[in-house]
Specification:
MetI-like fold, mainly alpha, about 280 residues
C-alpha cells in the first residue's frame, strides 16, 4: 500500500505543471477578453497611446450601433439555421455511412471508403465554380439552401464516425440486434447512435463552428439584400473609410456568443467525446 501511495504521489503534477496550464488558459482567454474590452469602450478611448485594459461603459450602446448598421438579426437567424441544419445532417448521415463502412460487408467497400477519404485532399476552392453553376441551375442562388446543401455531409465526418463505430460497437452487439429481428435502421438508431453519442456530439460541435465561421461560400451565394450570415455582415462593419474598432469588436463579440453558449451547454459531452479512446486498458 505504501508503494502504491508513493507511486501516485510521484505521478501527481507539480506546481510547474499547474503554472504552465494557468498561463496557457490565460493566453487562450485573452483574445476574447480583449474583444470584450474594445467592444465596451468608445472608439476615442481605444485610439489613445495607452490602450484600455478594463471594460468600459459603452457595451450596449455599441451593440445598438451594430444592429443599426447592418441586418444583424437576420444574419444571426440565417447562421443559426445553416449551422444547426448542417450539424444535425452531418451527424445523421455520417453515422449512417460510418455504420455501413464499419459493420456491413459489401463489394467495393474499401474502394468506396478510400474514395471518400481521398476527397479530403482536394482543396475546397477547386470546386467553387462548378458548385456555383450547379446551385444557379437548381434555382437556389441567394437562398439559405445554397449554403446548406453542399455541407450536408463531409468526408471527414464519415471517416471519423466510421472509426468511432468500429472501435466502440462490437460486431456481436450488431449481430444480436439483427437476430432479434431489428432492421438496419433500427440497429443504427438503438445500437449505433447511443454507442457513439459522445463522438457525435463533438462532430456536431465541430460542424456547427465550421458552418458558423464560414465566410467565403456564403459571401458568394448570399448577395447583399439577402441578410447574409454573421461573418458576411461583420465584414460590412469594416468596409468603411473609417475603421470603427469598437463597432467591429462589438459585432465580433455578438457573433461569438452563440458558440460560447453552445460550448457551455454541451461541455460534458464534448470533453467525454474528445477523451473517448484516449485512455484504454
Amino acid at each position: 500500500m505504501a508503494a502504491k501511495s508513493t507511486a501516485r504521489a510521484e505521478r501527481r503534477p507539480g506546481p510547474l505543471v499547474y503554472t504552465a496550464m494557468a498561463l496557457l488558459v490565460l493566453a487562450s482567454l485573452f483574445p476574447l477578453y480583449w474583444t470584450f474590452v474594445v467592444a465596451s469602450n468608445d472608439n476615442s478611448v481605444i485610439g489613445q497611446s495607452t490602450p484600455p485594459l478594463v471594460p468600459g461603459g459603452h457595451l450596449f450602446d455599441n451593440f445598438s450601433r451594430v444592429f443599426d448598421s447592418v441586418e444583424f438579426w437576420i444574419a444571426m437567424k440565417n447562421s443559426l439555421i445553416i449551422s444547426t441544419t448542417t450539424a444535425v445532417s452531418n451527424v445523421v448521415l455520417s453515422t449512417m455511412a460510418g455504420f455501413a463502412f464499419a459493420k456491413l460487408r459489401f463489394r467495393g467497400r474499401n474502394l468506396l471508403l478510400g474514395t471518400v477519404v481521398a476527397t479530403v485532399m482536394v482543396p475546397t476552392q477547386l470546386g467553387i465554380v462548378p458548385l456555383y453553376m450547379m446551385i444557379t441551375k437548381m434555382g437556389l442562388f441567394a437562398s439559405v439552401s445554397a449554403v446548406i446543401l453542399p455541407s450536408l455531409v463531409s468526408a471527414f465526418g464519415v471517416f471519423w464516425m466510421r472509426q468511432a463505430i468500429d472501435e466502440n460497437i462490437p460486431d456481436e452487439l450488431v449481430e444480436a440486434a439483427r437476430v432479434d429481428g431489428c432492421r438496419l435502421i433500427g440497429v443504427w438508431w438503438h445500437v449505433v447512435l447511443p454507442g457513439v453519442r459522445s463522438t457525435a456530439s463533438v462532430l456536431a460541435m465541430f460542424v456547427f463552428m465550421t458552418a458558423w465561421n464560414d465566410f467565403f461560400w456564403p459571401l458568394i451565394v448570399l448577395p447583399p439584400g439577402t441578410g447574409g450570415t454573421v461573418q458576411t455582415v461583420l465584414s460590412q462593419l469594416a468596409a468603411g473609410y473609417f475603421t470603427d474598432y469598437s463597432l467591429i469588436m462589438s459585432g465580433a463579440f455578438l457573433g461569438v456568443l452563440p458558440l460560447l453558449v453552445l460550448f457551455v451547454a454541451f461541455a460534458r459531452q464534448i470533453v467525454s467525446g474528445v477523451m473517448a479512446g484516449a485512455v484504454k486498458g
